[in-house]
Amino acid sequence: MEPLPTAFLLVIAGVLMALSVLLSRASRRFGLPVAMLFLGIGMAAGSDGPGGIEFNDYGAAFRLGTVALVLILFDGGLNTPLSAVRAAIRPASVLATVGVVATAGFTGVAAHLLFGFSWPVALLLGAIVSSTDAAAVFSVLRGSGLHLKRRVGTTLELESGLNDPMAVILTMTLTQNLVSGAALAWREVLLDIIIQMVVGGGMGLGIGWVGRQILKRLRLQAAGLYPVMTLALAFLAFGVPTLFQGSGFLAVYTVGVMMGNETLRYRTGLLRVHDALAWLSQVVMFLVLGLLVFPEQLLDVAWVGLGLSLFMAFVARPLAVLLCLLPFRFPAGEIVYTGWVGLRGAVPIILATYPVLAGAPDANAVFNVVFFIVVVNGFIPGATVPWVTRKLGLAANVPEPPPAVLEIASTQLLNGELSAFYIEAASATAGARIAELPFPPESAAMLIVRGLELLAPKGDTVLQAGDHVYVFSRSEDLPFLRLMFGQREDE
Questions:
Q1: What angle (nearest 5°) sits at the alpha carbon of residue 11, between those of residues 9 and 14?
Q2: Which residues lie across from 473 on neighbouring strands?
Q3: In the beta sheet, which residues pair with residue 421?
Q4: What is the spatial distance between Cα 365 and Cα 370, in angstroms, rounded to a whole number?
Q5: pLDDT 10s digits, 305-318
Q6: Are 347 and 370 in contact (CB under 8 A)?
Q7: Lower CB density within 10 Å: C or N end of the chain?
Q8: CB 16 within 8 A of CB 45
Q9: What pTM, to 2 d.p., does this model score?
């Protein structure tokens, strides 16, 4: 009788989520994507683990995973500067389309020739594991205190936001062909890809434009209602294009980019809420996917999964990246790095549930192989990402974020900005007094964060190397302030 079953369910959910957060520090020590930890906790809690929780609802996992991906992609778009899109859109788009198809094709050939899968099943397997997850890369880098240089970092980030639609289209098309037993019509597949991309991208731009107009004009009494509105836009951005045969994943990422590069009411609060929702989505999604798998069944596909994982890490992904990036004259080190760190995340596991739901032949075997590939990929190349970043000299010299952050949260559109600047040792402002700096008339230093100290800026306060200075200014004065302090730290 209720509420005992609900209480029991909430206790289990609370314990698993709390364990995931508390043990996430272990990922920093071992240099692994934190998602692998969430996945491991889910497996341990499942029917074959000490937790003994029975869960085999592929439909629920697929729906939950889809919602989680919508929230993660929307948050990724919100945090993608338009300057990064302009700088990396061409190579990232090629990687997200041609690169995905090439990776799927190379992996499918290996699955057929080396491990005996039939061509339809082999190509489906390749399509499912063809997309990458840059969030996994950046979680490993953040855990090791490293930041990527701008060009390779933005390319990886954009690729991950754009490549899911291609993997989804290929997986669903190949699954339908496998179920029907019909010969694969590549012209129809190509036409379907074009339609989904055009509809998804077009509707994403339209919904993003409408959303920007609404949020610029909408005045709500309660600040907490603004995240509700942006959440509604994210769901609409996925749902509407999908109903019209478009790519909802491409649309939701597009809307996120458009919203993130607009001056919005309650912007600071919106970014914080969606960041929390994205993390919650990752935790819940990987816990559920971990519950869904039966570890003892993975032993039956261990050699196949290991072999395909190594083939993807050393052959398929690097070769696909080489073919895609050569025309853009990327340096050899950046091509090698982009090819090596193509980590897999939750998307392949979620896509692997689709053939199971569709009743495709060998679907359970494909699911187990995909799961094994994702797990192995977390170690190879996952655990090597920090070492390879240093070895190839691709770590950016980015200052550590301050331990205290000053923000302005307002439901009104204010004529002013609060910007943070880092004082480099070589900066002309290092050693200067606040009174000596030529601040524009409407600008002022608001706070200095020096180590663990918070300092109130005064005229005789001397700026030191390593200080983080928060400055209030008019928007039109920002270029001058950037010139005075140097590169702004969040760019």
A1: 110
A2: 417
A3: 469
A4: 9
A5: 999 999 999 999 99
A6: no
A7: N
A8: yes
A9: 0.85
